[in-house]
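<tokenise_the_fold>
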Amino acid sequence: MLLRSATVAADFAGQMVWAGAQAQMPDGRQVSGAVVDIDSIRAVEFPDFVTFFTDLESSIESLRQANKVKFFSCLTEAAIQEMGPQYE
């Protein structure tokens, strides 16, 4: 099993997993697996545009971090190894 179901306690994360995806690696090798689609919505209320603009960068980073947690919580160790990570 390469993927596992995961949930993140947040107001902005949902996921869909499709099995049966096929792709060609840069070396020409054909691989098959799953596609993980993580949609993110965050309900926010700002009193004015200046506050919205001022807080935008931190809000986007918070959303990005939640997506990262969601994605990596779906992967098993076998999935990570299948991707062939290279650490420098």
